[in-house]
Amino acid sequence: MAEAATRDSSLPTLALAHPTEKEKTAQFKQNGAAWRGALSLELYLRREEILASQNLTKDGGLTYWVLIDTAANDRLVLSGCETYRKKALVARNGKVEETITHGIGSVFCPPQLRRRGYTARMMQELGEALRTWQTEGKECLFSVLFSDIGKKFYAAHGWEPFNSSHISVPAKTSRIIDTKDLPTAQPLYEGDLGELCKIDEAMLRKSLEARPADSNTAVALIPNVDTIRWHHAREDYVGKELHGKAPKVKGAIVGSEKGKRVWCYWTRMWYNNDPKESKGNTLHVLRLVIEDEGLSSWKGSGGNHINGSGKSHQQNGDGRSSYHESAIVSLLLMAQREAQEWNMAEIGTWNPTSVMVSAAQRLDPNTAVVNRDEESIASLKWHPPHKGLVAESIDWVGNEKYGWC
Ligand SMILES: CC(C)(COP(=O)(O)OP(=O)(O)OC[C@H]1O[C@@H](n2cnc3c(N)ncnc32)[C@H](O)[C@@H]1OP(=O)(O)O)[C@@H](O)C(=O)NCCC(=O)NCCS
Fold first, then answer.
1. Closest ligand 1 atom to the C-alpha of 31?
2. 396 within a domain of the structure (yes/no)
3. Please, are residues 164 and 378 in contact by the beta-carbon 8 Å criterion?
4. How many structural domains comprise the chain?
5. Whose CA is nearest to atom 10 of ligand 1?
6. Which member of 78, 174, 238, 269 has the lowest number of beta carbons within 10 Å of its beta carbon?
């Protein structure tokens, strides 16, 4: 340890490596103290194992990284993190290409080694490594992370903060909603998700293809079923361990006519360390899809988040907007029922569109958009050389909770 205390973070011999099983477990044991929530350490370790064996993460989908000193006799983990390989779309110069991106998570430095620049060095090395990691000869154009330590640290290494706003609706609202004028919402189960995700992906692609050639470069993580299921694997595991069963209702849908439906998927996250308490527990809307908006313009499918690319929800001239609002009210009412059943205090939606905000305000007039400064700051690094800030020249489409890792 004495050697570690004096090891300079700028030493040329410091390098990225992949941890051994023993090192990985040691990292988990240390970060579990902060991140296990209401789970015991043993259950937290098991959860991480399960999350590492999903379609999204198995067979190389999840990579563990550590910073070590390659010249030292005692191999010591100076800092560590994980990266998730994800599918993404990039639209630029009138063309849309499918690519892979990496989502960085679980950045963690052992407490006794902090504030010596090791994590900064790791991020610098990682930014370089990810450009070609698992790209099969292509270039990885960008990577993302969700900072819980504000906007500055990661920005210094190229991961610039993007729109990171949300709204919260309490699980219980005192307002009585007259449901007779609302369209009916049906629950979505696991088996429903695959087809809906495919439709969503196709719409997202189309909407990006429809962008004028001179628009900003746009990027989107693909909201595919593997991504959604990874979130659900977590809620299933924690649900079973804390409440004896896994939640079945994974989202809700309004309408049955193809092309005119509105749906969302959600996931429950238990943040409270006491499983009996609901404070802080949040049912997160992972992705909201408005089918006819996604089909009608590139502004749909998540491009029209308020405070996002500066575009707000637009009426499309046929009164669909107020229908969309009512449809979302119905989705939120079902979300509220689920939230109450599963000991959640609130429903959260990241980077909501204005129609989502007005729907939420019908349930709770106090709903206001919160711009986060500290936690879950959606951050993106554009890997090719560029001038100036990319947050001003790149639109992150579909910057919703489903992208979190
Ligand atoms: C955050 C963390 C990874 C930083 O590791 P580190 O090796 O100490 O970081 P470095 O020495 O390279 O850089 C230190 C800088 O990080 C930033 N930083 C560290 N913790 C921070 C925090 N909680 N909030 C804001 N900035 C923070 C500061 O800019 C700090 O510089 P300073 O010492 O001059 O204030 C480490 O503190 C940790 O593991 N924390 C617990 C887990 C966690 O929060 N991970 C981040 C998830 S996004």
1. 42
2. no
3. yes
4. 2
5. 117
6. 174
Whether the CB of 124 sits within 6 Å of ligand 1: no
Give yes or no: residues 74 and 60 share one domain. Answer: yes
Ligand 1 atom index nearest CA of 109: 39
Pick from 7, 104, 114, 148 the residue to mutate for probing ligand 1's pocket: most ligand atoms within 8 Å of its CB.
Answer: 114
Last residue of a domain, one of 119, 136, 161: 161
CATH number of the domain that 287 lies in?
Answer: 3.40.630.30
Range of the domain at 79: 2-161
CA–CA dist 50, 41 (Å, integer):
14
313 lines ligand 1 (CB under 6 A): no
Residue range 8-56, pLDDT digits in tens: 999 999 999 999 999 999 999 999 998 999 999 999 999 999 999 999 9
Predicted model pTM: 0.94
Looking from the CA of residue 114, the nearest atom of ligand 1 is 8
> 245: Cβ below 6 Å to ligand 1?
no
Within-domain flag for 380 = no
Within 10 angstroms of residue 392's Cβ, the number of other Cβ atoms is 8
Predicted confidence (pLDDT) per residue in 360-401, tens digit: 999 999 999 999 999 999 999 999 999 989 998 999 999 999
Cβ(35) – ligand 1 distance below 6 Å: no
Strand partners, 186: 253
d(CA 128, CA 107): 16
Q: How many CA atoms lie within 13 A of 35 on its CB side?
A: 15
Q: Residue 105 in contact with residue 31, Cβ under 8 Å?
A: no
Instruction: Specify if 114 maps to a domain.
Output: yes
d(CA 93, CA 404): 27
